[in-house]
Design a protein that fits this description.
The protein contains eleven helices and 18 strands. Helices cover about 40% and strands about 20% of the residues. The chain has two domains: about 130 residues, Four Helix Bundle (Hemerythrin (Met), subunit A), CATH 1.20.120; about 220 residues, Rossmann fold (3-Layer(aba) Sandwich). By secondary structure, it is α/β, with parallel strands linked by helices. The chain has a seven-stranded mixed β-sheet, with helices on both faces. Strands 13-10-11-16 form a four-stranded mixed β-sheet, covered by helices on one side. It is globular.
């Protein structure tokens, strides 16, 4: 995707010699007011980037974890460090299943190799994971494009297709294209007029700060709304469809996404608005049948009690917005049961949110 007129991915390895190679990321905690690139040279820096959300979004977390393993091998390719790196990265964030998938993938490749072979293999596989993720998201966009095209035909090509999204499931949450935004970008490039309602997505405001920023960088018409406006817009006929992402999906089609997604799904169901979830197959957890079994990350209460913004003087400043002494509860995700999901948009096609449909798309992966 574009930043200004330059194409960027969200993560990439530097061109240094293998023994001194580093990994660079866009620091998403500084967006939308600062565009800063952070250089990572150690395992601990990769763990910090995931834990403190310099990178976020299930696919990007997985890609960062893969490069984190490579950075660990750069400093010490021993069996012990391979195990320690796996454990440290796995503990960084508990909900996104891509994290575990990427770590298992790297460990299975690296474990049989001699230590001196591991560095090159780790960087090569991490790069492949990034390329695969970009290709998967592009394919998600191709399949989702047809849904948007259908909505455009349904309204008689008389107006833009209004799409509501929640949080950031854009290219900033992946390596490129995004999941929920991929169909939007594909439709925009195809000349289909679209307009995106962007939930601000408290408490970290990933919609207002990240989704709005990246849509603006790529010229896509959008409007930021407070989270609680979504139901009103659906009631008044101003939403043609909802498209969201997911950090973990069960084999039966329950989806776990940023807190507040469930409420949007309920409102969509009540107003007969299609509710789509876009995801790569790597986000499906075949070991879990019910969303109730997904671990829900609870983050620091300061994300609720404080907010960061740009002052009139142009400085970034964090301020307290609740009374001193008031406690805050900060679950990062909620679960939307499959019954409220119209369809899942994957890189292999569109599926109903059922076990049978997912198993038909992923016959090998589903043999858990």
């Amino acid at each position: 995707m574009k930043v200004g007129q330059e194409h960027f991915r969200t993560i990439w390895a530097t061109d240094d010699e293998l023994e001194s190679r580093a990994v660079e990321i866009i620091d998403q905690t500084k967006l939308p007011f600062r565009f800063e690139i952070v250089r990572m040279e150690t395992l601990n820096e990769a763990v910090h980037a995931i834990m403190d959300m310099l990178v976020r979004g299930a696919p990007l977390i997985g890609a960062t974890a893969a490069y984190g393993m490579a950075l660990a091998m750069r400093h010490d390719p021993s069996d012990k460090n391979l195990d320690d790196a796996y454990d440290n990265l796995l503990a960084a964030r508990p909900t996104a299943v891509n994290l575990r998938w990427a770590l298992d993938d790297l460990k299975n490749i690296l474990s049989p190799l001699r230590p001196k072979q591991r560095l090159k293999a780790a960087f090569a596989r991490a790069a492949e994971i990034c390329d695969e993720d970009a290709a998967q998201c592009s394919a998600i966009g191709d399949h989702g494009l047809e849904l948007i095209r259908g909505a455009y035909e349904k309204c008689g090509r008389s107006r833009p297709v209004n799409i509501l999204t929640h949080c950031n499931a854009g290219w900033l949450a992946t390596v490129d294209w995004g999941t929920a935004t991929a169909p939007i970008y594909k439709a925009f490039e195809a000349g289909i007029p679209v307009h995106v309602w962007v939930d601000e997505t408290r408490p970290r405001n990933q919609g207002a700060s990240l989704t709005a920023w990246e849509l603006g960088q790529n010229g896509v018409p959008h409007t930021v709304i407070v989270d609680n406006a979504g139901g009103h817009l659906m009631q008044s006929g101003q939403v043609d469809m909802c498209i969201v992402g997911t950090d973990r999906t069960t084999r039966t089609g329950d989806v776990c996404n940023k807190i507040g997604t469930y409420l949007k799904a309920l409102a969509a169901s009540d107003n007969s608005v299609p509710f789509y979830v876009a995801l790569p197959g790597t986000t499906i957890d075949w070991s879990i049948r019910s969303g109730r079994d997904i671990p829900i990350e609870e983050r620091d209460q300061t994300e609720v009690t404080e907010i960061t913004g740009l002052t009139k003087a142009g400085d970034l400043e964090t301020i307290q917005i609740v009374p001193s002494g008031s406690a805050a509860f900060n679950p990062a995700f909620d679960v939307t049961p499959a019954e409220y999901v119209t369809a899942l948009i994957t890189e292999r096609g569109i599926a109903t949110p059922t076990e049978d449909a997912l198993m038909r798309l992923y016959p090998k992966e589903s043999r858990y």
